[in-house]
């Protein structure tokens, strides 16, 4: 089978999950081409010998660019004639649903997280879909979509026990904190709030320093660097280090005590036995422990709808334990086991392949170009209506 896998961008955590999907498909003898806007992670696919193609992401704010991207995608499809399109992210699924009947190729939708926009068209319900959390399924259901073709499948991680290093082996007199995030405007509030937390912890501490490293790159990288320098100068010492984009994320996790962020980095951190804080865009955070685990997992560790956020004294308690070497090893071990149970892709291979088979066998009815244009106009009318409301 020939498969096109359409990503939004080669950045963030979703493409890493999709790389594991691509490996599973190739293991069945499928030929997989990966399409998306080049950013940071395309080399990971290229190193695995996947054919990659750069295509600007779909964005509801840029209709003209979307038309150009659709035309490019149609040309690729007409040239390579794939048997299945795997559309990854809600925007790709939306535009794929508009495109499907024009190109006569079945589609499997994968929604790896994020918010489901109110302008999501109802005809999306006709497509077979995998979502990574109940939150996304419920959001689609709330918009009136039939969810009978949706499978919730959070298992998407390939863990490597060879990388495991105990938190007790972190060689540092400081409390090492790690923030992992795309440095984009959509993450700005959580990034700056995390830096403010580190500043406050150092100002109020009379003992060991709390040092934070930030992994990631993006459109607000210069703003982040400038604010970090401002904090460092105000504290008369360097407590925030900007590391930029890094491939060796697990090494940074292994050399840290506490990880801040959301989504994939939280899951990785818990598996590797670290304290993890989900920080959301409302400038609230929640420490992930055995009590809060299920609540945070429901929303894919995004921090959306966060109930009973923790406060600075809760975080200070953890830092105090770290400084004294009083790690709650049993809780960290239990959380690691839960993550392996809930997120290891090895336990979901059969479900993924079944969904791929069902989607590929779906009958696609041809439509005219005029009907496609009308659907596209109706879709943008719905976007405008949602903005007015």
Explain what the structure shows.
By secondary structure, the chain is α/β, with parallel strands linked by helices. Helices cover 44% and strands 17% of the residues. It contains 14 helices and 13 strands. A seven-stranded parallel β-sheet has the order 3-2-1-4-5-6-7, with helices on both faces. The protein has a six-stranded mixed β-sheet with strand order 10-9-8-11-12-13. The longest helix has 20 residues, at 369-388. It is globular. It starts with a strand and ends with a helix.
Task: Provide keyphrases for this structure.
single chain; alpha/beta; 14 helices
Give a concise summary.
This protein is of the alpha/beta class. It is built from 14 helices and 13 strands. Helices cover 44% and strands 17% of the residues.
User: What percentage of amino acids are in beta strands?
Assistant: 15-25%
Q: H/E element string? A: EHEHEHEHEEHEEHEHEHEHEEHHHHH
Please identify the structural class as seen in this structure.
alpha/beta
Q: How many strands, what sense, and barrel or not for the largest sheet?
A: 7 strands, parallel
- The residue ranges in which pLDDT falls below 50 over 5 or more consecutive positions are none
**Overall form:** globular
Question: In percent, how helical is the residue content?
Answer: 40-55%
Number of helices: 14
The rounded distance between the terminal residues' Cα atoms is 44 Å
Strand order in the sheet with the most strands: 3-2-1-4-5-6-7
Gyration radius from CA atoms, angstroms: 22 Å
Average pLDDT confidence is: 90
Number of β-strand runs: 13
């Amino acid at each position: 089978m020939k498969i096109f896998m359409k990503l939004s961008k080669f950045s963030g955590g979703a493409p890493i999950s999709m790389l594991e999907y691509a490996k599973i498909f190739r293991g069945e003898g499928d030929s997989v081409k990966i399409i998306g806007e080049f950013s940071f992670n395309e080399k990971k696919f290229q190193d695995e010998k996947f054919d990659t193609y750069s295509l600007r992401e779909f964005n509801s704010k840029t209709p003209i660019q979307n038309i150009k991207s659709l035309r490019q995608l149609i040309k690729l499809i007409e040239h390579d004639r794939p048997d299945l399109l795997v559309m990854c992210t809600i925007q790709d699924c939306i535009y794929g649903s508009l495109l499907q009947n024009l190109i006569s190729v079945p589609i499997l939708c994968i929604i790896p997280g994020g918010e489901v926009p109110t302008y999501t068209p109802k005809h999306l319900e006709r497509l077979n879909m995998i979502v990574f959390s109940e939150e996304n399924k419920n959001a689609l259901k709330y918009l009136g979509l039939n969810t009978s073709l949706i499978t919730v499948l959070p298992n998407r991680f390939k863990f490597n026990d060879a990388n495991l290093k105990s938190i007790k082996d972190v060689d540092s007199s400081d409390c090492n904190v790690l923030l992992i995030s795309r440095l984009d405007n959509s993450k700005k509030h959580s990034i700056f709030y995390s830096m403010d937390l580190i500043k406050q912890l150092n100002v109020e501490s009379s003992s060991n320093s709390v040092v934070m490293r930030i992994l990631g790159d993006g459109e607000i990288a210069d703003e982040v660097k400038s604010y970090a320098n401002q904090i460092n100068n105000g504290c008369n010492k360097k407590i925030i280090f900007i590391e930029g984009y890094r491939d060796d994320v697990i090494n940074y996790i292994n050399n840290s005590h506490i990880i801040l962020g959301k989504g994939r980095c939280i899951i990785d951190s818990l598996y590797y036995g670290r304290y993890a804080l989900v920080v959301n865009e409302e400038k609230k955070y929640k420490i992930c422990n055995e009590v809060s685990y299920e609540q945070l997992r429901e929303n894919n560790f995004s921090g959306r709808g966060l109930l009973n956020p923790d406060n600075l004294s809760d975080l200070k308690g953890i830092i105090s334990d770290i400084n004294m070497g009083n790690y709650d090893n049993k809780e960290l071990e239990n959380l690691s086991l839960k993550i392996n149970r809930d997120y290891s892709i090895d336990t979901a291979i059969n479900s993924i392949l079944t969904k791929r088979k069902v989607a590929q066998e779906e009958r696609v009815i041809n439509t005219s170009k005029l009907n496609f244009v009308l659907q596209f106009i109706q879709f943008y009318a719905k976007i405008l209506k949602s903005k007015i409301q």
